[in-house]
Write a structure and sequence with these properties.
- This protein folds into 2 domains: 153 residues, Aspartate Aminotransferase, domain 1 (Alpha-Beta Complex), CATH 3.90.1150; 239 residues, Aspartate Aminotransferase, domain 2, CATH 3.40.640.
- 40% of the residues lie in helices and 14% in strands.
- The strands form 4 sheets. A 7-stranded mixed sheet has the order 2-8-7-6-5-3-4, with helices on both faces. The chain has a 3-stranded antiparallel sheet with strand order 9-12-11.
- Strand 13 and strand 14 form a beta hairpin.
- Helix 5 crosses helix 9.
- The longest helix has 22 residues.
- The N and C termini lie far apart (45 Å).
């Protein structure tokens, strides 16, 4: 079979692959604990279910406009005004089948072959592949101090004449780190000055902890006209625990949104009608589910961090948001893929190798599961790695004997 060079250059999503692996092992009756996932355990808000069901009950489920139904655009406009203090019009909004498609279509709309897109490390696993799919060149900005907090200098020093866009994801997947307000302000100013697109991936921006508030990029923008190159991405997947509905959106200048709409109309047409109506219900309904999820996640984070800190040699940066930690296990194994496979094989714990996020020696460990899964998962990890742990461990009725230390 002859495949294109592009097809051969694109890797599958490692996080989705791990979901499949965990599901297959569970189907075989294996006692798997999935600490690599990105799906909250919360149920879909009832307002979303009612809104979705209402359109299904009509039996009239048809094509939708390529850029989203008017009711959802109206809800997004209200959401943007409430949470970003920014008034936008319908022509500034495009609804997509998930935030991933919103970013992908935006990249198609702005990139020419060999244009560069900059993003700091650690980064979401899909950014490099998405940029390559759009014909661009991914460029990673590495924080020079070895932390997860890039400075404006870290980012701008890799910006060159071919740089077309910068992508910022805060709070950050995989580290959970929330970038300081000063950095966002500097980036907005820098991108306006250099005429560079700034894509703000705000997927987790309401899942922040310790009483902090999300950073609003619009507060620092001087140009909010149709020449603005500031793009804000959001979705219902994480904060409303609606990953399976696949609804995200982008806010941008109307020329960009028009181009994105044209592209999307040729790719997938409009997002599915039931999913859009579910998103309408979520955005317009009672919002206490987000606060409940955030408080649950904050408690889960505290438990996970304290357990990880108890493992000798493991370095942990306390997340300021999301539902991920990105601890450094290099004291035990610098090859993160080898380590993740070892933990899966030996103690049936699923984690995501740090290499996929641009940093070796780390594993992404999620805390969006139950406290029981978190406690038992970390207990298994410590047992597998720490030579001072007891020599035996029970997984259900199965007794494991550690014979590799």
């Amino acid at each position: 079979m002859s495949l294109s060079q592009l097809a051969q250059s694109i890797s599958e999503s490692p996080t989705l692959k791990l979901n499949e692996t965990a599901a297959l092992l569970r189907d075989r009756g294996e006692p798997v604990i999935h600490l690599g996932g990105g799906e909250p355990k919360s149920r879909t808000p009832i307002d979303a279910i009612i809104s979705c069901t209402s359109i299904l009950n009509t039996g009239e489920v048809r094509y939708t406009p390529a850029d989203g139904i008017p009711a959802l655009k109206k809800a997004i406009i209200r959401y943007t005004e409430e949470h970003y203090k920014r008034q936008v019009r319908p022509e500034n909004v495009i609804v997509s089948s998930g935030a991933k498609q919103s970013i992908m279509v935006a990249l198609y709309a702005i990139l020419d072959p060999h244009d560069e897109v900059v993003f700091p490390s650690p980064y979401w696993v899909s950014y490099p592949e998405m940029v390559k799919l759009a014909g661009g060149v991914p460029v990673v900005a590495q924080p020079q101090d070895g932390t997860f907090q890039p400075t404006i200098e870290d980012i701008t020093q890799v910006v060159g004449s071919n740089t077309k866009a910068i992508i910022i994801n805060s709070p950050n997947n995989p580290s959970g780190v929330m970038y300081p307000e000063s950095l966002i302000a500097e980036l907005v100013e820098f991108c306006e000055k250099k005429d560079i697109w700034l894509i703000m991936d705000d997927t987790y921006n309401r899942l922040v902890f310790d009483g902090r508030s999300p950073v609003n990029c619009y507060e620092y923008a001087k140009d909010l006209t149709d020449s603005s190159k500031l793009v804000v991405i959001n979705c219902v997947s994480k904060m409303y625990a609606m990953t399976g509905f696949r609804i995200g959106w982008a806010i941008g200048n109307r020329n960009l949104v028009r181009a994105m709409t044209n592209i999307q109309s040729q790719q997938t047409s409009g997002p599915a009608a039931p999913s859009q109506w579910a998103a309408v219900g979520a955005l317009n309904g009672i919002q206490n589910s987000i606060d409940a999820l955030r408080m649950t996640l904050e408690n889960n984070r505290n438990v996970l961090v304290s357990r990880l800190q108890a493992i000798p040699g493991v370095k942990v940066t306390k997340p300021g948001g999301t539902f991920y930690t990105f601890p450094d296990f290099s004291a035990y194994e610098k090859n993160s893929q080898k380590l993740a496979q070892f933990l899966l094989d030996k103690v049936r714990v699923v984690t995501v190798p740090g290499k996929e996020f641009g940093m070796e020696g780390h594993l992404r460990i999620s805390f969006c599961g139950t406290l029981k899964e978190i406690r038992e998962g970390v207990e298994r990890i410590q047992w597998a790695l720490d030579p001072n742990s007891p020599n035996e461990l029970y997984l259900g009725t199965r007794k494991l004997v550690r014979d590799w230390l």
